[in-house]
């Protein structure tokens, strides 16, 4: 029961802040609080946002029931969750949150929310790559020779930046 409560609080606090509070503050600041008319685009945007919100809720539920943990980094899942959405997407919580932001950007026709979503995507991608590439290194944290072979998905990694002296586009194997 404790994990369930932690998961609910974490889901509301972290993704809730990122996909509801921050966009709301952006809309208030840019004076775009009302979506205006309701048409096909607005219905489509709500559908995208609902799919994203469903993904976020599903991940939290899966972490509690299958992973025996929570989405909170201080109490992560104890069991590896590799079914459901994880079979198709590396991190469905991030994808779900970004879908909610895309839906909001379309609904309110807000370029600022698009820019915020792009910045959030970059931050999440870099932080996830840093964590992942560090875990694929040897015990000292240095990248192993096979690190690049295990990261063939083309994502930018911290090791790539360090090894290339900050020059994007160069990779060492």
Describe the protein in words.
The protein is elongated, with a radius of gyration of 18 Å. It folds into two domains: 2-120, no CATH class; 136-173, no CATH class. The protein has 173 residues and is an all-alpha fold. Mean pLDDT is 77; it is low at 135-156 and 164-173. The chain has six helices and no strands. The termini are far apart.
Q: Give the number of domains.
A: 2
Strand content is under 5%
What is the helix/strand order?
HHHHHH
User: Gyration radius, to the nearest Å?
Assistant: 18 Å
Distance between the termini: 47 Å
Q: Count the helices. How many?
A: 6
Which consecutive residue ranges, at least 5 long each, have pLDDT under 50?
135-156, 164-173
Calculate the mean pLDDT score and round it: 77
* Helix residue percentage: 55-70%
What summary fits the major beta sheet? none
- What class would the helix/strand composition place it in? mainly alpha
Query: Which geometry do the CA atoms define?
Result: elongated
The number of distinct β-strands equals 0
List keywords for this structure.
single chain, 173 residues, mainly alpha, 2 domains, elongated, disordered C terminus
Question: SSE layout and pairings?
Answer:
Blueprint: H1 2-29, H2 40-65, H3 92-108, H4 111-135, H5 147-150, H6 158-163
Helix pairs in contact: 1-2, 1-3, 2-3, 3-4
């Amino acid at each position: 029961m404790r994990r369930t409560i932690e998961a609910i609080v974490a889901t509301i606090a972290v993704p809730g802040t990122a996909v509801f509070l921050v966009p709301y503050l952006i809309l208030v600041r840019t004076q775009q609080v009302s979506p205006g008319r309701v048409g096909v685009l607005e219905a489509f945007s709500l559908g995208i946002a609902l799919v994203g919100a469903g993904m976020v809720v599903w991940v939290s539920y899966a972490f509690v029931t299958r992973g025996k943990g929570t989405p909170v980094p201080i109490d992560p899942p104890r069991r590896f969750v590799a079914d459901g959405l994880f079979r198709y997407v590396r991190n469905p919580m991030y994808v779900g949150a970004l879908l909610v932001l895309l839906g909001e950007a379309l609904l309110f026709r807000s370029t600022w929310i698009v820019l915020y979503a792009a910045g959030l995507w970059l931050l999440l991608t870099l932080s996830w790559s840093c964590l992942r590439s560090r875990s694929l290194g040897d015990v000292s944290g240095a990248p192993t020779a096979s690190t690049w072979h295990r990261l063939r998905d083309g994502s930018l990694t911290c090791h790539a930046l360090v090894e290339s002296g900050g020059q994007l586009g160069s990779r060492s194997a």
